[in-house]
Specification:
169 residues; mainly alpha; Ferritin; 80% helix; elongated; binds hydroxy diiron-OXO moiety
Length: 169
């Protein structure tokens, strides 16, 4: 059985996942207004994934007979300098989430809460994958250079294709 302190921490993470979803959805809206339709679709799919992460915490807390608490969620930023700026901010945010998941995992280990420790392992892997994904996207931006409009066009198209590919899997 998870402690009250652990339920509180899990609820904290639930709200971070909610914020992640809102952040990526807002970024998707920004991309749409800039004609970056591939990136908008990619980010919208990513926002949906974050909502699924939120739901995983919601379900787990409920299974523990805890009360899942949706708190006040901060509004995400609305303006971005460029698509590269969006991707840099995502990577920074994902690093923040990774740190938070690792702190939770360490707390579960210290409390000998094996079920929660086990539940969190999925998120440890997921964070590793997400950081690696956004690192590779940023590598491509660095390859084409920030002022290369044709490069941006192809990157946007590639991001859009990533949605089609993952939907087909
Ligand atoms: Fe980006 O994985 Fe959840 O927050």
């Amino acid at each position: 059985m998870a402690s009250k302190a652990m339920i509180k921490k899990l609820n904290g993470q639930l709200n971070k996942e909610f914020y992640s979803s809102n952040l990526y959805l807002q970024m998707s809206a920004w991309c749409d207004t800039k004609g970056l339709e591939g990136s908008a679709a990619f980010l919208k799919t990513h926002a949906d994934e974050e909502m699924q992460h939120m739901q995983k915490f919601f379900t787990y807390i409920t299974e523990l007979s805890g009360l899942a608490l949706i708190g006040q969620i901060e509004a995400p930023p609305v303006e971005y300098k460029s698509l590269k700026d969006v991707m840099e901010k995502i990577l920074k945010h994902e690093k923040f989430v990774t740190k938070s998941i690792h702190e939770l995992t360490e707390a579960a280990w210290e409390e000998k809460d094996h079920a929660t420790y086990n539940f969190l392992q999925w998120f440890v892997s997921e964070q590793h994958e997400e950081e690696s994904l956004f690192n590779s996207i940023l590598d491509k931006f660095n390859l084409v250079g920030s002022d290369n409009k044709q490069g941006l066009f192809f990157l946007d198209r590639e991001l859009g294709q990533m949605v089609t590919t993952s939907a087909a899997e």
